[in-house]
UniProtKB/TrEMBL annotation:
Enzyme class: transferase
MF terms (GO), sorted A to Z: methyltransferase activity
InterPro entries on file: HIT-like_sf
Record's signal peptide: none
Keyword DNA repair: no
E.C. no: 2.1.1.-
Lineage: superkingdom: Bacteria
Name listed for the protein in its UniProt record: HIT family protein
GO process annotations (BP): methylation
Keywords in alphabetical order: Methyltransferase, Transferase
SUPFAM superfamilies assigned to the protein according to its UniProt record, in alphabetical order: HIT-like
Length: 161
């Protein structure tokens, strides 16, 4: 079991955070952005960046080649649908995608939008950790959190109509 501290300060004990989120045991802050038969998307609860979405499989697998054919099709379809919504309603021009198989959670892809403020931390993969830490440490103010939640509800509306 692992103890996870959520952005709202609450702690939960779970075997796998992705299972806890996709099964509904933990309600992600801001709710579910979109859900399909095999996947579940929510705002990253740890980093307050507008449009930063985690797309997780509902099944507890860790590697891409463990997905079934149906899951693979569902994955690329919903991933690109979320990507389009990020562009259409949030004006996000570029997104970084991260997914590591040696995770303590299960199969999930981070969709990290690029904003102009991020370029002071560099470009490409080496900038990502500093960007996320900056967001967590310096952007947890009420105004930014309101913006993040506003962006989230725009994305959710776009993806569920
Ligand atoms: Zn799991």
């Amino acid at each position: 079991m692992r103890t996870i501290t959520l952005s709202n300060g609450k702690t939960v004990e779970v075997e796998c955070l992705s299972c806890a989120l996709t099964s509904g045991l933990i309600e992600p802050d801001g709710g579910i952005v979109v859900e399909t038969e095999h996947f579940h998307a929510h705002q990253d609860v740890a980093y307050p960046i507008k449009g930063l979405i985690i797309l997780a499989s509902k099944r507890h697998v860790t590697c891409l080649d463990e997905l079934t054919e149906m899951e693979k099709l569902d994955y690329i379809h919903v991933l690109s649908k979320i990507r389009k919504a990020q562009r259409d309603v949030l004006g996000i021009e570029h997104v970084y995608y991260f997914y590591n198989e040696d995770t303590t959670h299960h199969f999930h892809t981070w969709m990290v939008p690029r904003y102009d403020w991020m370029y002071v931390f560099g470009r490409s993969i080496e900038s990502v950790r500093p960007v996320l830490l900056h967001a967590r440490k310096e952007m947890n103010d009420a105004k930014n959190l309101e913006d993040v939640m506003g962006a989230l509800s725009l994305l959710t509306d776009e993806l569920n109509t």
